Amino acid sequence: MTDQAKALTARPTTTRSVSWRDFLELTKPRVVALMILTAVIGMLLAAPGVPGWDVLVFGNLGIALLAGAAAVVNHVVDQKIDTVMARTRRRPVATGRVSQLDALLFATVLALAGMMILMWQVNALTAWLTLASLVGYAGVYTLFLKRATPQNIAIGGLAGAMPPLLGWTAVTNQVEGHALLLVLIIFAWTPPHFWALAIHRKEEYAKAGIPMLPVTHGNRYTELHILLYTFMLLAVTLLPFATGMSGWIYLAGATALGLRFLQYSVRLLRGDDRRVALATFKYSITYLMALFVVLLVDHFFYF
Length: 303
Ligand code: HEM
Ligand SMILES: CC(C)=CCC/C(C)=C/CC/C(C)=C/COP(=O)(O)OP(=O)(O)O
Hints:
One of its GO terms (biological process) is heme O biosynthetic process. Its EC number is 2.5.1.141. This is Protoheme IX farnesyltransferase. Keywords: Cell membrane, Heme biosynthesis, Membrane, Transferase, Transmembrane, Transmembrane helix. It is built from 17 helices and no strands. The chain folds into two domains: about 20-175, UbiA prenyltransferase (Tetracycline Repressor, domain 2, Orthogonal Bundle), CATH 1.10.357.140; about 175-300. Residues about 1-10 have low confidence and may be disordered. Helices cover about 80% and strands about 0% of the residues. It is mainly α. The radius of gyration is 20 Å and the shape is flat. α4 runs antiparallel to α10 and α7 packs antiparallel against α8 (about 125-150).
């Protein structure tokens, strides 16, 4: 192998030694933080009043530990493909700063701690549903779907959509219709959230050999699907109002946020521009955060 070929295939080297920050990074803290926001709001909507501090603290801690563990496993399973993509090549396992074994041990500790907390301090239903979400993301999505089909996100997104239900069951110990509605909202949101980023990073996914929708079916097809999912998202977000779960404040907020999302999707379909794709991805995060905050404001306004 020539020196140039070696340089191209080598793992990115790192001069920095391992630190606690690497372990924190492995847990995808910003993604988990948004999941916890949706779990907290699930708890607050489920409770007749305000849930007890113990459910709030232990429920969210347990869910966060298991979600973090799932993210760590994702780094281990994806080590090779993370090394190929510019967005992920500096990750702790991809660079080798954290070994696969250490990462797996870390994931095991997080998962065991999370399960014990949920089992002993919350309830078994929440513990098993959270574990199922971990398996859904780390096992079904990462290990299998991500590499197998361009519909990976449309199916695998269910795992990431679970936190509001997990929050709800932590309080009520029951799976109820309104909680499933919140799951449905995140489930419909996930494809536009991710496909916008996949368009922006299409070349990298192609290089890594991952069959993301823009790679297999092109940008225009993906943009059309983003638009269709955004319509569906807008329709699904009207259900909390239609079923009497939320009031007019929510309806106004959800409609305004959804119309703005549609505006991004239409711009994307018209312009096919990488920068618009990135802006759409960023908006998707603001959108979900704002939508759940509006749900909560509405809940306490009519309370
Ligand atoms: C299987 C479903 C999902 C897929 C495939 C997906 C994909 C992604 C990807 C690839 C990124 C970029 C990460 C990076 O640059 O390191 C990202 C970022 C993000 N995702 Fe998702 N996502 C999913 C579900 C969710 C869910 C359910 C939430 C929250 C409820 C969420 C919240 C976020 C946030 C907050 C970021 C920004 C993270 C940052 O700034 O570092 N995602 N997502
Ligand atoms: C217990 C529970 C609630 C589990 C949910 C786990 C969890 C952290 C889901 C995150 C969703 C996500 C960021 C997917 C991206 O994975 P990717 O591999 O497509 O993206 P990447 O290339 O950035 O790693």
